[in-house]
Amino acid sequence: MHRRRTPNNFTYVSSCVKYMIFLLNFIFWLFGGLLIGVGLYAFVDKWQATGLVKVETVYDVILNISLVMVIAGGVIFIVSFAGCVGALRENTCLLKFYSLCLLIFFLLEMAIAIMGFVFPHTMQSVLEEQFTDKIIHTYREDVDLQNLIDFAQQEFRCCGLSSEGYMDWSKNEYFNCSSPSVERCGVPFSCCMNATDISSGLVNIMCGYGAQELPVAEAAKKVWTSGCIEIVRSWAERNLYTIAGVALGIALSQLFVIYLAKTLEGQIDLQKSRWNT
Description:
Layout: H1 15-50, H2 58-62, H3 65-88, H4 92-118, H5 120-138, H6 143-156, H7 216-219, H8 228-238, H9 240-276
Helix pairs in contact: 1-3, 3-4, 4-5, 4-9
């Protein structure tokens, strides 16, 4: 705690704690503003390109990457702004709001982590049931989501989302076997084991055509057949200690910042009581 020798200048408020909270939140405030800017740019660009952005249900919002960026950026911007101003102006109301928000985030993260570690199969079933049909159906309608799905399928070497694997794509209007499209009974190129030609470096977008008509054993020779949620769960189980270490580091960081905010609140209250007496 910072104490000065001159009685008239004595203060309970530690400059170190005060400006540490300000600096940390100023960085997150800038990051939140960046997320809002990028998200708004992507949202407006998509709106101008398609002329329509569907936002009718909560799933439409969750699956719209640009909107998720704007919402997440807005939350980070508001909370970090409260931390910045609360610390700089020594405002206990803003600091209480800031501490409460961090505590809520911490509890939500802990709840999700416990669900993921204790009930991994239940979590997988819930995700498959709630999101598989909606994500598969939205593919090609949302370019951002399409790029994210293609990236995930290539990186995790999977195809589709649920335990049905590559057959999930039968639920998409372009890849359904009853579709008049040339892609009927196929899967996206990102499901292919060798989508890129090594010599030319070009991507063969037709490599997944007809994959749904093949038995699993035959399809497994040209495309990945397992669903991405199952693959990600298996990957998380293999890297459990690394993920737990990162999660613990984030949790301890949040608790430390909450501790700093509550410490500063107490120091400000002490200083106010000194002024009153």
